[in-house]
Every structure is written in C-alpha cells, then in structure tokens.
Amino acid sequence: MGKIKISAIKTGFKFNLVAGNGEIIGTSQVYKSMDAAKKGAESVKNVAPDANTEDQTQENYKKEVNPKFEIYKDNAGEFRFRLNAKNGENILASEGYTKKDSCLKGIESVKKNAATSEIVNE
C-alpha cells in the first residue's frame, strides 16, 4: 500500500505520493499551510483513480475534462505527467521519463496507489 507523505519545507508544505515499494510517483505543488496540503492530498486520493488521460504529445490530441492527467514533454525532451483537479489546478506532477511507456506506467501507478494511500506527516 502506498502513502501520501506531507512534509514541511522552507516555503510551506508539499506531499509525495509514494508507492508500496518506496518509489516516489508524484509530487505536489507547494501549499501555504498543512491544512491546504491535506486537502490537496485528499483531492489526489479522490480524483486520480478515475481521471482521464490527455496526451498532449500527440498532434490534434483529444482535450479531456478535469480531473485529468496531462502527458507532455518538458524542455529536456522528457515525458512527464501532471494531475489536474476538478477545478483545473495542478495537484500532482511526475518526474521526467525518457520513454512515454514509462510515463503511462507512472500514471497507472498513481491510479492504483492514490485511493488506498494513507496520508501521513513526515
């Protein structure tokens, strides 16, 4: 079972979604308060399992409604995903992947782990 680990940083609070094997599969934005970070974590738990995927690396891609995962290429040419909440706010982002297939597996891991993850303070 995965965990959502909330931690304090210099500029506020953030959380990581960590798979059962200890790998970080997504990181949140920075929140101003612990309360806001907890709400963000709950949002990930609630929307990730059923969120559609919008592959922005394809020409003429189909636009999905929020909540959704967006696959895109960063400036270094790596594939990344971000999870947007119902209101369109980015609530989770991935590391860079050299292959799109690995990025897609990352999304599946978020979907699998998010709903059952316990939220803990680090």
Short description:
This protein has 122 residues and is α/β, with parallel strands linked by helices. The protein is built from two helices and eight strands. Helices cover 24% and strands 34% of the residues.
What are the SSEs and their pairings?
Layout: E1 3-9, E2 12-18, E3 24-27, H1 34-47, E4 52-55, E5 68-73, E6 79-84, E7 90-93, H2 100-114, E8 118-121
Parallel strand pairs: 1-8, 4-5
Antiparallel strand pairs: 1-2, 2-3, 5-6, 6-7
Task: Throw out a few tags for this protein.
2 helices; four-stranded mixed beta sheet; alpha/beta; globular
Structure notes:
The structure is a single chain. By secondary structure, this protein is of the alpha/beta class. The chain has one domain: Roll (PH-domain like), CATH 2.30.29.80. Helices cover 24% and strands 34% of the residues. The chain has 2 helices and 8 strands; from the N terminus they run βββαββββαβ. It has helices spanning 34-47, 100-114, and strands spanning 3-9, 12-18, 24-27, 52-55, 68-73, 79-84, 90-93, 118-121. The strands form 2 sheets. A 4-stranded mixed β-sheet has the order 3-2-1-8, with helices on one face. Strands 4-5-6-7 form a 4-stranded mixed β-sheet, with helices on one face. The longest helix has 15 residues, at 100-114. It is globular. The relative contact order is 0.24. The mean pLDDT is 96.
